[in-house]
Specification:
Chain lengths: ~325, ~130
């Protein structure tokens, strides 16, 4: 009897009595940190897988500068990377407003916490919107290309102007009888994907009539530039073309290797989902700040925890930006 | 509140800020400069930086180093790792520093190996 009471006294007093914080951080904050560690490893797995595929196709990977060239309201202007740079800046800035909100929380200043949280939410929403716009441009495509029997992509190049030429600029429109098969006018159990607006025959006819047009391969030279064939080589290569490709989906894209689009959709999509959920969590915390929940509680630790998540999203973007757009 | 004391100097004490808010703006300016340099290099692509160094183009090494610098300042100042106990700091940073280079090493080496097989062999396919 005496012994057991001695033990219980020992285990309930001092350091064993609970309430100690060896890491000087609450449990919620620690859990958020370790979630971030695991999520960081998930993202590294994705980015390293991208690196693997890229090293495996080191001589034919699409060139990001040629893919992401759009800027809002500047239609047709070749603006590589400016828009992604702006998106990066928006995300870093929303990270800053988040730190300022956390800082205001340490001073228990409710109005300033609310104000900075609101700015953070706006920044996040602008970023998600920008990403959607990037996806739209990527899916829609710009120049168009043809796919060969081998699955490789051929892009068209104007030898006179020394730049790429979109297929709709040189394709000759031919009258055509072929319509997309729909189940209400024929065999209902046969499906067909939508026919392209410009058919392969039209592209090939346009190619034959314009001797100054040649093709660019997926393959790149030592300088990192796409290899451009001369006209005779182009004529023999294009004879095995099987279809016109415009834009991108998970199976093929006009930029080159299908894996490029697959990783683009998957990694930026997964990151965009993180940003989206971050915005939702920020809105919940923002409402709680307005309701005075944390003021009653006496501390703004919750703001700090969502802050950590939000910065992590920014951190991941810094890496995605480097490996998808720069390297 | 002892938890909220901030270490206010960055660059190993080269710059010391008067308040935490000032430090936040200072770090933002630094991160913006690094991003601007990255974008400028990405657009200009100076010929001299396109030479290979240790398997990668010089310019890509610069991008990667600048990215790691940015990551350091985001975690250290925005996520307040600088102000945490060193034990907490290490439980977060050390696993990542061990596991990520490990993963990178294995997959990138294997990726280039498969590239060589495809190049030298008589098969080519997409997987």
């Amino acid at each position: 009897m005496q012994a057991s009471s001695a033990i219980s006294e020992k285990t309930t007093s001092g350091s064993w009595g609970g309430g100690e914080k060896p890491l000087v951080a609450g449990y919620g904050k620690l859990m958020m940190w370790w979630f971030i560690v695991s999520d960081a490893l998930t993202f590294s797995g994705f980015l390293v897988a991208y690196g693997f595929s890229r090293f495996k196709n080191i001589d034919s990977w699409p060139i990001a500068d040629e893919v992401f060239t759009h800027f809002p309201f500047l239609h047709g202007v070749d603006a590589p990377m400016y828009y992604v740079a702006l998106m990066t800046f928006i995300l870093i800035f929303s990270s800053v407003t988040m730190v300022l909100a956390v800082d205001a929380g340490h001073h228990n200043n409710k109005n300033r916490v609310a104000f900075y949280m609101l700015l953070t939410i706006i920044g996040g929403a602008v970023f998600v919107g920008s990403q959607a716009w990037e996806w739209k441009n990527f899916i829609k495509g710009e120049y168009g290309a043809v796919e060969l029997q081998t699955g490789k992509i051929l892009q068209f190049y104007d030898l006179e102007k020394n730049k790429r030429i979109p297929i709709d600029e040189f394709a000759v429109s031919l009258t055509q009888e072929r319509l997309t098969h729909e189940d209400n006018v024929g065999l209902w159990y046969v499906e067909e994907s939508k026919l392209p607006e410009i058919t392969l025959d039209e592209v090939l006819e346009g190619f034959n009539r314009n001797p100054n047009i040649t093709v660019r391969l997926e393959a790149i030279d030592e300088k990192g530039k796409k290899i451009i064939l001369n006209r005779e080589e182009a004529e023999s290569t294009i004879s095995s073309a099987t279809r016109v490709v415009k834009g991108a989906n998970l199976y093929r894209n006009e930029y080159g290797n299908p894996l490029f689009a697959d990783f683009f959709f998957f990694i930026t999509g997964f990151h965009g989902f993180h940003v989206f959920s971050g915005v939702i969590i920020n809105i919940i915390i923002f409402i709680n700040v307005l309701l005075g929940t944390y003021e009653k509680r006496g501390h703004y630790d919750m703001v700090e925890k969502v802050g950590l998540y939000w910065h992590f999203v920014d951190l991941v973007w810094v890496f995605v930006f480097t490996f998808f757009y720069l390297v | 509140m002892a938890e909220h004391l901030h270490k206010l100097e960055i660059f190993r004490g080269l710059i010391k800020f008067k308040s935490n808010q000032q430090k936040i703006w200072g770090v933002l300016i630094f991160l913006s400069i690094v991003t601007a340099v990255e974008v400028a290099l990405g657009i200009l692509k100076p010929e001299i930086l396109l030479n290979k160094f240790l398997g990668l183009k010089l310019i890509n090494w610069m991008f990667i180093i600048m990215t790691i610098i940015k990551a350091y300042y985001i975690t250290w100042d925005f996520m307040h790792i600088r102000d945490e106990k060193s034990f907490l700091k290490n439980t977060i940073v050390v696993p990542l520093l061990i596991l990520i280079p490990f993963l990178l090493f294995i997959l990138l080496v294997e990726g280039s190996y498969i590239f060589d097989v495809m190049l030298g062999g008589f098969k080519s396919w997409n997987f």
